[in-house]
Amino acid sequence: MTVLEARTFLGTLEAAMEAEAWAADQAKRLDLSERAAFAMTLCLEELFVNAVTHGAAREVRLALSEDTLEFRDDGTAFDPTCAPQKRLQGQTFDFEIGGFGTGLLQKFADRLSYRREGDWNVVRLAFGARSR
């Protein structure tokens, strides 16, 4: 992966919003399609919030190539490619929130991979076509 842009963020919920805005700006600069930009920022938000809230991540590192986001966090080991996908059952106005994130990642990313490098979770997501 040839990194075009990279940035490090603190592991806080406030930084998650900052990272999402940064990624949206980069998606425009890289000329990603609207669908790819939406998918990337949605998945980034899901990964970031979960890394901070459930994994106690103190730092998050993002790297972007033309259509790929690499998300690194120093939180508890968690492989989203192996986690069970929770599905809605019945009426959607009355359901328990939580547990849908891995399904969301798998639905919106064209490709999803995970590896553990030392103390870091490394998730790579590809989002497909550029708008050209």
Task: Produce the secondary structure layout.
Blueprint: E1 5-10, H1 13-29, H2 34-53, E2 59-64, E3 68-73, H3 101-108, E4 111-117, E5 120-126
Antiparallel strand pairs: 1-2, 2-3, 3-5, 4-5
Task: Write structural notes for this entry.
This protein is of the alpha+beta class and about 130 residues long. The protein has one domain: Histidine kinase-like ATPase, C-terminal domain (Heat Shock Protein 90, 2-Layer Sandwich), CATH 3.30.565.10. Helices cover about 35% and strands about 25% of the residues. It has three helices and five strands; from the N terminus they run E-H-H-E-E-H-E-E. It has a five-stranded antiparallel sheet with strand order 1-2-3-5-4, with helices on one face. A hairpin with a 2-residue loop joins strand 4 and strand 5. Helix 1 packs antiparallel against helix 2 and helix 2 runs antiparallel to helix 3. The chain is globular and about 35 Å long. About 5% of the residues have low confidence.
